[in-house]
Write a structure and sequence with these properties.
The complex is a heterodimer. Chain A is an alpha/beta fold. Chain A has a single domain, classed as Class I glutamine amidotransferase (GATase) domain (Rossmann fold, 3-Layer(aba) Sandwich). In chain A, strands 2-1-3-4-11-10-9-6-7 form a 9-stranded mixed beta sheet, sandwiched between helices. Chain A has a two-stranded antiparallel sheet with strand order 5-8. In chain A, helix 1 packs across helix 5. By secondary structure, chain B is an alpha+beta fold. The radius of gyration of chain B is 26 Å and the shape is globular. In chain B, the strands form 5 sheets. Chain B has a 7-stranded mixed beta sheet with strand order 8-10-7-11-9-12-13. Chain B has a 7-stranded mixed beta sheet with strand order 23-25-22-26-24-27-28. Helices cover about 35% and strands about 20% of the residues of chain B. In chain B, helix 7 packs parallel to helix 8, helix 7 packs parallel to helix 10 and helix 19 packs parallel to helix 22. Classes of the chains: A alpha/beta, B alpha+beta. The interface between A and B is medium-sized, with 29 and 31 residues.
Chain lengths: ~220, ~750
């Protein structure tokens, strides 16, 4: 069975939810601890939402230097699939696995809402189960979710098809070009501000349309 | 300043101490010297003053609160009752649930963000200290006049503080209330509730037993924040002209609290503690004296071992400090190493600061010299008790005689239509989603229902789908008209809200927000409200498991409306059977359950249309409430109803608007024959709900209502994209939405 690790940093909040989503998708969830010095033979890693290390200094800035991140950064460069959700996305940017940064929401409030998205790139390791242009609704909850990068980087992301998901109907945080998620050049590292792990059960989520991120990776791993 | 040791106190009996400045009355100070047989040391005085404050000792309210125990209905569900950090209720399948609502009113007016944030932090630690994993929070809030500029300052800070702390803690915020009224202008009410879940065998209590066991303080370092906060803030009314008391409010660090939660839960899992207590109001004074008082022996503390944020703090200040995110545990010596190891794993500072002794004194030392030597019970549990005089205010008769049923009413269909739009656009009746969207309701992945649903509901077992529901309600306007009935109406509404979602009400927690107990009129309100609540709990079979009293909510001579806020906890065996409030399916039949009388006293309509408060609140009929709840629960369990929404402030029309907008479907309503349309739509008679029934279930449902004797009137059908009251008016959902959703962002955004 494919093993998908979920890292718990001090201050991680949606780690159990990510573990649940991995399980519901049919993979074996594996808890990873920020101080771990090995990846326990996982085939992919999720960096969950939350406020790692209290988000002191800058969101994700301290987590990036934790022992486990050294292994994950190394692994990602070798092709290890990594999905960063919310705080995880911030950590991926701080780690320079993804370009740009996440800034305070333009309206200055934390926002929790059911957010409509369009999958712009259905060929990454984490989105292959979606169809190109598919519209999904998943929860979004963040205080610092505004994606920013310089114009040249934004143009490059667009040109290379590296915008993974875009906000529809309402841009909830002032993200440039309505960007909700991006990927690296190889397509194995994806950062996403909304929370697909909270849209995996009809009982507790607005939809189950977030499950695709977790089934995508499973299929990818089975194929490999 | 030289150290005021016990020896020094014995040798200098005539030294004057600032007991009056610390809020103690002359007879209280005399009592302390009587207990000790000498003058207290500075440290002892600090402890007594803070522990004997209204906030910690409940000295004015105690005699009335006793009724909650004396009149408590026999309930097999009750595992831990009043007196512990929070009550614990059996919800079946080996699970126990603990919940409590508490106030953080005064700090939230002075420093809205930190006041509200630490209110969340404090109640979460109370729940944690019982051995439970906190699983959800809720916040009943009351602010002043929405048109006053200061209301915006307070509301912004409070909402941001609750979000800032709760969101960072990873606890879903699943409900609560937001009410505006000028009576709360200088005294906003910030109540906070937390629910926690544990297995029966994991219940922990705050007591220190077993001589030789170690006392471990863990969590944040102790700093200068909140010193005297409890006694200063809760014992007197603050005047805006006085010196600033800002530093008295504690500052919260939710990240530290999150670590404390995970660390503590891991310690519980390994069964490493004998007793545990959180540090809240009165800090170490409270934790050490309560632990020792509830245990079998004494306690010895080396106060100089406490890790400090500010090395210049005096021992008295360390005892008084209300620095947040701290806990105190009693641990057997052979478990200490493992305890410290787990704290180290979570980067939580932990220090052995003392031990349980075989004596009967609480003894505190500072660098080897004794500064406290007291019988712990006299500090923690045997504080002063007052039988404050109370009397029905003279104005009460005139207020009740000012009958709201005589106010001018809408006279034609157009005026009725306008009244609906004005009602749903009024700040108290309008959508609060601008506020609740700033709270994370999804984290932990078990939220089944959240605001604006009738109650918040979380799943507690992913295999069996066992869940709990909680609702909080209070109506200060009703309670002002009749505090006895007002408290009962608050309970009835919360009870009804829990049942409306399909859960069976089990237990109650209350937060009693009132003015000064030194005013006999306020004390009468308090006595009436507690009597009403205790009587109603007896009838409904839902015991009070704990709660909190907040007094001195007044500015000058003017007290807030008496505001008992009542939380009801219910259990649901299968959360997939929950009943939401939305009219989700066209064609379903709308039934009104219960009877409507002409009742406008304290109503939302009387406030919105006339700025009026007078008359009598709606009649309370608790037997009808029980019957209604049974019908709602059976209807949910047996799949007979697809939506349910309780009727309360704003009456039938408010409930219809909310259920229509939530589901995105309109409704065609027929006013029952012979009924006055205005009364039918706007009256606030209690004991009512609207439900939507699939046509296939209609017969079964009405048969059940008839057999049990509950009035069920078919009033319409879910249909179209407007709320149409036949023969009267039709308002499109778009127009309703604009009215309902536009108000709060315009006021606060």
């Amino acid at each position: 069975m494919s093993r998908v690790g979920v890292v718990t940093f001090p201050g991680s909040l949606d780690d159990r939810d990510a573990l649940r989503a991995v399980k519901l998708a049919g993979a074996e969830p594996v808890s990873l601890w920020h101080r771990d010095k090995d990846l326990k033979q996982v085939d992919a890693v999720v960096l969950p939402g939350g406020f790692s290390y209290g988000d002191y200094l800058r969101c994700g800035a301290i987590a990036r230097f934790s022992p486990i991140m050294e292994l994950i950064i190394e692994g990602a460069k070798q092709g290890l699939p990594v999905l960063g959700i919310c705080n995880g996305f911030q950590i991926l940017c701080e780690s320079h696995l993804l370009p740009g940064a996440l800034t305070r929401n333009d309206h200055l409030h934390f926002i929790c809402r059911d957010q409509k998205l369009r999958i712009e790139n259905a060929s990454t390791a984490w989105t292959a189960d979606y169809t190109q242009g598919q519209e999904i609704t998943v929860p979004l909850k963040n205080g610092e979710g505004g994606y920013v990068a310089d114009e040249r980087t934004l143009d490059m992301l667009e040109a290379e098809g590296r915008v993974v998901a875009r906000y529809l109907e309402l841009n909830p945080n002032g993200s440039r070009r309505d960007i909700a998620g991006i990927t690296n050049e190889a397509g194995n590292v994806v950062g996403l501000m909304p929370h697909p792990e909270h849209a995996v059960e009809p009982l507790t989520g607005p939809t189950t349309e977030g499950l695709g991120f977790f089934t995508s990776i499973l299929k990818q791993l089975v194929k490999a | 300043m030289t150290l005021d040791t016990v020896k020094n106190a014995e040798q200098t009996p005539d030294t004057a101490l600032p007991w009056a400045e610390l809020g103690l009355k002359p007879d209280e100070y005399e009592r302390i010297t009587g207990i000790l047989g000498r003058r207290p040391t500075g440290a002892e005085l600090a402890m007594y003053s803070v522990m004997w404050s209204e906030h910690c000792s409940y000295k004015s309210s105690k005699v009335h609160l006793r009724q909650f125990g004396e009149k408590a209905p026999a309930s097999s569900a009750m595992l831990v009752g009043i007196g512990e950090n929070a009550g614990v209720v059996d919800v079946g399948q080996g699970y126990a649930v603990t919940f409590k609502v508490e106030s953080h009113n005064h700090p939230s007016y002075i420093e809205p963000y930190q006041g509200a944030a630490t209110g969340v932090g404090g109640i979460v630690r109370d729940i944690l200290a019982m051995g439970a994993r906190p699983v959800a929070v809720m916040d009943p809030l009351r602010f002043g006049d929405p048109d006053e500029a200061d209301t915006k300052r307070v509301a912004h800070g409070v909402v941001a503080g609750i979000g800032g702390y709760g969101n960072c803690l990873g606890l879903p915020n699943i409900g609560g209330e937001v009410v505006f009224d000028p009576c709360y202008q200088g005294n906003p009410l910030v109540n906070a509730l937390c629910v926690g879940v544990m297995r029966h065998e994991d219940i922990h209590l705050a007591k220190a037993s077993g001589p030789g066991n170690k006392v471990i303080l863990y969590g944040a370092r102790t700093g200068g924040d909140g010193i005297g906060g409890v006694s200063v803030l809760a014992s007197e009314t603050f005047e805006s002209t006085g010196p600033t008391k800002r530093p008295a409010v504690q500052v919260g660090d939710p990240f530290q609290e999150k670590l404390l939660i995970e660390c503590t839960l891991e310690i519980f899992r390994e069964k490493l503690v004998v007793g545990i207590q959180d540090l809240g109001g009165a800090g170490l004074s409270c934790a050490t004296s309560e632990l020792a008082s509830a245990g079998t022996g004494g306690m010895r503390i080396e106060l100089d071992t406490v890790p400090l944020r500010d090395a210049t703090l005096s021992p008295e200040e360390i005892l008084m400090s209300e620095s947040q995110e701290r806990m105190c545990a009693v641990v057997e010596p052979h478990n200490v190493d493992r305890f410290l190891e787990i704290c180290e794993k979570w980067d939580v500072i932990a220090t052995v600061i003392g031990e349980v002794t075989d004596g009967d004194r609480l003894e505190i030392f500072w660098h080897g010299e004794q500064i406290v030597d007291v019988p712990p019970r006299t500090v923690a549990h045997e504080g002063p008790v007052y039988e404050r005089p109370y009397a029905r205010p003279q104005w009460q008769d005139a207020l009740q005689a000012d009958d709201a049923n005589r106010l001018p009413r809408p006279e034609n269909a157009d005026e009725l239509r306008d009244a609906v739009l004005r009602l749903v656009a009024s700040p108290n009746q309008a959508s609060k989603s601008w506020i609740t969207a700033q709270y994370d309701k999804y984290v932990l992945g078990n939220t089944v229902l959240a605001q604006p649903e009738d109650s918040g509901m979380v799943r507690i077992d992913e295999e069996t789908n066992l869940g709990v529901a909680v609702a909080t309600d209070g109506n200060g306007r009703y309670a002002k008209l009749d505090p006895y009935a007002g408290a009962q109406l608050a309970l009835a509404e919360a009870y009804r809200n829990v049942a409306a979602t399909g859960a069976r009400p089990l237990a109650v927690s209350d937060c009693l927000n009132f003015g000064s107990p030194e005013d006999p009129g306020v004390m009468w309100q308090f006595a009436e409200a507690t009597r009403g609540l205790a009587d109603a709990c007896q009838v409904l079979g839902t015991p009070v498991t704990g709660g909190n009293v907040s007094l001195y909510n007044q500015t000058g001579e003017t007290a807030i409306h008496p505001t008992p806020v009542v939380a009801v906890l219910g259990v649901i065996d299968d959360v997939t059977r929950r009943t939401p409030m939305a009219f989700a399916e066209e064609g379903q039949l709308i039934y009104l359950l219960g009877e409507t009388r002409e009742e406008f006293g304290g109503s939302a309509w009387s406030q919105v249309a006339h700025g009026h408060l007078g008359g009598l609140p709606p009649k309370v009929d608790l037997e009808r409430e029980k019957l209604l709840a049974e019908i709602l629960i059976s209807g949910s369990r047996d799949g007979m109803i697809d939506a349910a929404h309780d009727l309360s402030d704003g009456g039938l029309v408010q409930a219809l608007v909310e259920s229509c907008l939530k589901g995105g479907n309109g409704a065609r309503i027929v006013i029952p024959e012979g009924a006055d349309p205005f009364v039918a739509l706007f009256s606030e008679s209690a004991g009512r709900a609207v439900v939507s029934v699939p046509r296939s279930e209609e017969l079964r449902f009405t048969d059940m209502c008839r057999a049990r004797g509950l009035a069920a009137t078919r009033i319409g059908v879910v249909d179209g994209d407007a709320l149409e009251v036949q023969g009267q008016f039709s308002i499109t959902l778009a127009a309703l939405r604009e009215a309902y959703e536009g108000t709060i962002p315009a006021l606060l955004g």
